[in-house]
Amino acid sequence: MVTIKTIVEINERIKQGKAVVVTAKEMTKVVKELGAEKAAKEIDVVTTGTFSPMCSSGMLFNIGQTEAPSLRASKMWLNDVPCHAGLAAVDGFLGATEMREGDPLNKVFPGEFKYGGAHVIEDLIAGRTVHLRCESYTTDCYPKKSFERDITINDLKFAQMWNPRNCYQNYNVAVNKHRDRTLYTYMGPIKPNMKNANFATAGCLSPLLNDPYFKTIGLGTRIFLGGGVGYVIGAGTQHVPNPKRNEKGIPLSGSGTLMLKGDMKKMSDRYVRGNSLLGYGVSLCLGVGIPIPVLNAELAQFTGVSDEDILMPVKDYSSDYQNCSPNVLKHVSYAELLSGQIEVDGQKVETHPLTSYHRSLEIAEELKSWIEKGEFLLTEPVELIESY
After folding, report:
1. How far lies 4's CA from each of 9, 15, 43, 242, 314, in Å?
2. Which of 141, 167, 285, 324 is catalytic?
3. Binned average pLDDT, 10 residues per bin, the chain of 388 residues
4. Is the Cβ–Cβ distance between 128 and 79 less than 8 Å?
5. Is 83 a catalytic residue?
């Protein structure tokens, strides 16, 4: 496909206030009305957005040496949620799904999972106080045995979100064919006899569905992350580069994922929320927006993806998912899911989203505003994400 513009050229247009920026939802209409060739000439950037639970997220932080004698923390807690301290003297990592010590978990079923790592992350970003506690086996250079105090995010020397796996490119629609038992899953509670179908994606707004072959996304791509600026640092930990696709290149199952990072001190709790999933655990609802530069007609066509184009696999979580079966009951379009009802095995099934479409669109609009104001420039990836 012939390139008609470059990222350097688009950035110059952004600096001059001349860049034409549209959201992915708007681009669907543009491509439909003008065609891909003309749309590529007229549109410079398409902004995407999603606000959805993303379990594989966390916080890398450093508490600093605050007072003598010095400390080498071998164990750390934030609001009684255990952190991984096996990094260096006062470095720690807090996983979003880690639970507060003493939580009954699923011993009282279904567990409520009221507070975990994701809630700590939200509290810090919101400017709330959390309690830090450390223990050490002590060494000659680090003689302090323990340390604790109340802190805010401003007391941390370093606080960044480091997320191993975010922004799934397509995902399952979860149903439960079991006759009499509700399933409590990371997709939320799924009622027996297919009384509901839960799904999680932002459809035509979804970042990786607007660049399905990762033509513009890779190491160093600047993004909207949690209300601040973040970066892509590689493929996610369950990245699948070669999924089955439909005729428009859209994957037919969960496939591409991203590893992301961003400065938590510049994020907003509007786009970072702890989420308790009944009977399952804790997750982090996170806002991500990725700008797609429209370099040619091919990318214009991809960013013109519609909700009707996106086909999602319906899977039975009472059997097939648990047993790692590749079986798919059927594929349904995102447009069908948004209608509130799908048909599976001749049965009408109510649909329920885990992703906030409203806030996903808000993120795309916010990112669009940053670019139009010249506050956000695009980056040329050092290395593209693998896809074929």
Report:
1. 10, 19, 11, 27, 39
2. 141
3. 87 98 98 97 98 98 89 96 95 98 96 98 98 95 94 97 97 96 98 98 98 97 98 97 95 96 98 98 98 98 98 97 95 98 98 98 98 98 87
4. no
5. no
